[in-house]
């Protein structure tokens, strides 16, 4: 696993990934994951990034229930979430998985899919305080409340001690400054696939 070295902790992060990469966003509700993903795509449109590369659990929930706040049927939501990610992997498409991913089971499932399809894994941990998450939440329609955010923050503390043993290829911890200015602090390059060998 290539955890960010002391040099990599200096901003900007300069991240180079192959085409067959799964980028996993991990953090509490209200941490800014979805907004960060949108910025990441927008600043790399010239390199072939597209909004469709972001697969969100909220989007999957909305597709099934017409309501992304519906938390009653997570199994159906994440069946679709993993199904879409798998289909993209079968097409060799780089993919951003946008969910809280704060439990070991959630991250393990994504790691398992990546391993099965020979994908590199890159974990972005949103190490954002509950106060900032709550402030972000008050600016959006979908609100989960302070109790859920505090619970997520407790899960985040567990994650910070667990992820080094989980088998990620690259890991980056993001601060509030990173999510407020991703174009300045995150320089992400997806390498194009090598041309097919006609003699193969």
UniProtKB/TrEMBL annotation:
Q: Which domain of life is it from?
A: Bacteria
Which Pfam families does the entry link to?
A: AAA_33
Q: What InterPro entries is this protein classified in?
A: P-loop_NTPase
Check the record and name the Gene3D superfamilies matching this protein: P-loop containing nucleotide triphosphate hydrolases
Tell me which PANTHER family the record gives.
Answer: PTHR12435
Name of the protein this chain belongs to = ATP-binding protein
Give the organism the record lists. Answer: Ktedonospora formicarum
